[in-house]
Amino acid sequence: MSLAERDHNIIWHPYTQMKTAALPIPIVRGEGALLFSEDGKSYIDAVSSWWVNLHGHAHPYIAQKVAEQLQTLEHVIFAGFTHPAAVTFAERLISILPQGQSRIFYSDNGSTAVEVALKMAIQYWENVGTPKKKIIAFRDSYHGDTFGAMSVSARSAFTAPFWPYLFEPHFIDVPVPGNEEETIKQLEVFAIAGDVAAFIYEPLVLGTAGMVMYKHEVLDRLLEICQQHNILTIADEVMTGFGRTGRTFASDYVQHKPDMVCLSKGLTGGTMALGATSCNEKIYEAFLSDDKRKTLFHGHSYTANPVACAAGLASLDLLLLPDTQQCTRHISQRHQDFAIQCRTLPKVKEVRQQGTILAVEFEADGTSYFNKMGDTLYSFGLEQGVILRPLGNIIYVIPPYCITDKQLDKVYQTILGMQQLITGTRYFEPPTKTTLHD
Ligand SMILES: *Cc1c(COP(=O)(O)O)cnc(C)c1O
């Protein structure tokens, strides 16, 4: 039996309708931006394996640091104990995080980083003696798949069965160009009404919404209003962190700094599962008390796992190299050039770009048409040896920073091929079953 068949007999995959999904592609090795399947085919990982990979697969430097850590200390309980990797990583994170962040609380993925931030915000107001109940969030946002994170995320088909169990935030529109004033008004109404504990947002780019982008100037105004009305601010940088948007954090583009920042995905360069929530001293101090009830009672078995922290430290070493910084600037420039070319093409509705993130939105004639089209585009990409997962009618690129010029060329060529499929100037017969999930 093949590996894919053995998988099919026993594994339940994420976001996957197991009845209709094609067999998964068995990947046996990775190197740089490439993944190699069992049958020897190579794929350019243009989506950084769900947005996590920064420096390429099986990076030798990260591998070495992880191996050393594994042979020294693999894990230790993080209540009552600590270890060098957690402390050093926290120190280094604080040194690069937006100004004002002073404490790191570790967890183990992006959703838990968000849960921790929400709990910090709600309990903060409880602890200071003025409880506030409401959270403000963007209507199309995505903050994770656990219940708190789902609550502050878009109400979509993905979460529909759970709607009765989710708490209700105040949703405001994403301030995309042209909608800025409307969003500011919406936020002001909620802010003036009061009882708002926090505003959680994906800064500058909403990933799962389809790489929807808005300007840093409007984010600054939203954050200013929050500060004026004593609303805590939570930047969910799980996707935007570590250079994706052209600066280390998307929050680096704004003057008003968040009270809390959620990190995961690129936090370990895409090597290990790790989450972190940072906060400023104001939040932290509200939990200091002789009254034990003011403690943040939250933790995970693998909190601050030493191997994950070692991977994070190694990834930071690589991220801060001048070469890597040069690579992210180069990718941004190439994306910009491609965007200019792509914008003029038929059926291309919009091309968005922020740093190393590029999104091409095609004109959608109807959603069901595009679900089918999405499957075709996905299969077409795979056939070309490029992993590009459409979000509806949107194709996006968020590559590892080590991607070569030739590989980028191939990714762009594949997107142009997709545009030709959509305009009918090119024909491609997709396999009967495809593996597209979301
Ligand atoms: C992926 C993502 C999350 C959830 O992270 P997981 O590690 O998948 O739980 C939260 N927020 C944003 C912005 C994300 O992109």
TrEMBL record:
<comment type="similarity">
    <text>Belongs to the class-III pyridoxal-phosphate-dependent aminotransferase family. BioA subfamily.</text>
</comment>
<feature type="modified residue" description="N6-(pyridoxal phosphate)lysine">
    <location>
        <position position="265"/>
    </location>
</feature>
<keyword id="KW-0093">Biotin biosynthesis</keyword>
<keyword id="KW-0949">S-adenosyl-L-methionine</keyword>
<feature type="binding site">
    <location>
        <begin position="110"/>
        <end position="111"/>
    </location>
    <ligand>
        <name>pyridoxal 5'-phosphate</name>
    </ligand>
</feature>
<dbReference type="InterPro" id="IPR005814">
    <property type="entry name" value="Aminotrans_3"/>
</dbReference>
<feature type="binding site">
    <location>
        <position position="142"/>
    </location>
    <ligand>
        <name>substrate</name>
    </ligand>
</feature>
<keyword id="KW-0032">Aminotransferase</keyword>
<feature type="binding site">
    <location>
        <begin position="300"/>
        <end position="301"/>
    </location>
    <ligand>
        <name>pyridoxal 5'-phosphate</name>
    </ligand>
</feature>
<feature type="binding site">
    <location>
        <position position="299"/>
    </location>
    <ligand>
        <name>substrate</name>
    </ligand>
</feature>
<feature type="binding site">
    <location>
        <position position="265"/>
    </location>
    <ligand>
        <name>substrate</name>
    </ligand>
</feature>
<dbReference type="GO" id="GO:0004015">
    <property type="term" value="F:adenosylmethionine-8-amino-7-oxononanoate transaminase activity"/>
</dbReference>
<keyword id="KW-0808">Transferase</keyword>
<dbReference type="InterPro" id="IPR015421">
    <property type="entry name" value="PyrdxlP-dep_Trfase_major"/>
</dbReference>
<dbReference type="InterPro" id="IPR005815">
    <property type="entry name" value="BioA"/>
</dbReference>
<keyword id="KW-0663">Pyridoxal phosphate</keyword>
<feature type="binding site">
    <location>
        <position position="236"/>
    </location>
    <ligand>
        <name>pyridoxal 5'-phosphate</name>
    </ligand>
</feature>
<keyword id="KW-0963">Cytoplasm</keyword>
<dbReference type="Pfam" id="PF00202">
    <property type="entry name" value="Aminotran_3"/>
</dbReference>
<comment type="subunit">
    <text>Homodimer.</text>
</comment>
<protein>
    <recommendedName>
        <fullName>Adenosylmethionine-8-amino-7-oxononanoate aminotransferase</fullName>
        <ecNumber>2.6.1.62</ecNumber>
    </recommendedName>
</protein>
<feature type="binding site">
    <location>
        <position position="50"/>
    </location>
    <ligand>
        <name>substrate</name>
    </ligand>
</feature>
<dbReference type="InterPro" id="IPR015422">
    <property type="entry name" value="PyrdxlP-dep_Trfase_small"/>
</dbReference>
<comment type="function">
    <text>Catalyzes the transfer of the alpha-amino group from S-adenosyl-L-methionine (SAM) to 7-keto-8-aminopelargonic acid (KAPA) to form 7,8-diaminopelargonic acid (DAPA). It is the only aminotransferase known to utilize SAM as an amino donor.</text>
</comment>
<feature type="site" description="Participates in the substrate recognition with KAPA and in a stacking interaction with the adenine ring of SAM">
    <location>
        <position position="15"/>
    </location>
</feature>
<feature type="binding site">
    <location>
        <position position="389"/>
    </location>
    <ligand>
        <name>substrate</name>
    </ligand>
</feature>
<dbReference type="InterPro" id="IPR015424">
    <property type="entry name" value="PyrdxlP-dep_Trfase"/>
</dbReference>
<comment type="pathway">
    <text>Cofactor biosynthesis; biotin biosynthesis; 7,8-diaminononanoate from 8-amino-7-oxononanoate (SAM route): step 1/1.</text>
</comment>
